[in-house]
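Progress narrative, work stream C.
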Amino acid sequence: MFSGIVAAVGRIASEKPHGDGVRIRVESGGLPLGDVKVGDSIAVQGVCLTVVALDAKGFEADVSRATLDVTQGLAKDRDVNLENSLRMGDRVDGHLVAGHVDGVGSVVEMQDLGGSVRVTIEVPSSLERYVAAKGSVTVDGVSLTVNAVEGGRFQVNLIPHTLSATTLRALRAGSRVNVEVDLLARYVDRLLQK
């Protein structure tokens, strides 16, 4: 589990075929790795990945074809948002994030509000029902509050800190983003289906 509060921006230094997917090497930037060990989880651009190799400058993780098919941004030379997994008792400043990306959305519009930026994102129709105004959503691993929803589009505001501390600063109209809907919305929907 994660909180969607990005701890560092790293970079994917290499990508090579491995099994049915790829093995990536991530330079960890300022992400603390002192207590991380092989087998631990790290969120990379919102995707929960298992550390398979580790040194002082970064780590390696395997990304399956199934994950590659429903995500974006896990390619060589890409900057990525990083977050270590939560431990019981840790503070949750964002919301509970599983690191299980539900789909890829597209940035429709960016509007500079003179300090913050309003971003409109369109999600696949299969995700529309899970996004609610004043609810939580994770975009590229960043916990955000939904300001408004209309059909398959929702709006979030990016404050200056979020822009400076995450890869969201590079978003433009047409950018593709990993979207994870709120965990509770998924469970409520499943319960209502029964």
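Work stream C, second folded protein:
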Amino acid sequence: MRATRHLRALIVIAVAITCLSQIGCVTRRLRLRSDPPGATAYVDDYEVGTTPCDVSYTYYGTRKVVLIKDGFETRTVMQEFPSPWYQYFPVDFVAENVVPWDIRDVRTVEYKLTPQVLVPTEQILRNGRNLRQSLQGGP
């Protein structure tokens, strides 16, 4: 009789542990795309890969995104990632710890890179001469 109660208690504990281990979480991913692809991507001054690429993150807010590609202007953007409704107190505790499935928050941002403008060498030399003359002739 006593062994049966202990067995039932162990079964209940095992089921509870199994259920609690299946509790979900919030998975946050940032997908970076560029047009044209192949730019080196930095998020908050950390290199995260070559576009297109994905990176996980923990906190919402403003992120510094920098894209660098040869032959194109470097693109720097302060990108805002607002918190979704389920990340405000007290709902965030339930979303992170009680909901029995994974919540996936995937944010995709795409940036168009502009071709780099090359200034002709003669124009650079002319601008340098003009600057030198203005400094020498000044007070």
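DSSP finds three helices and seven strands in the chain. No further action is required on this item.
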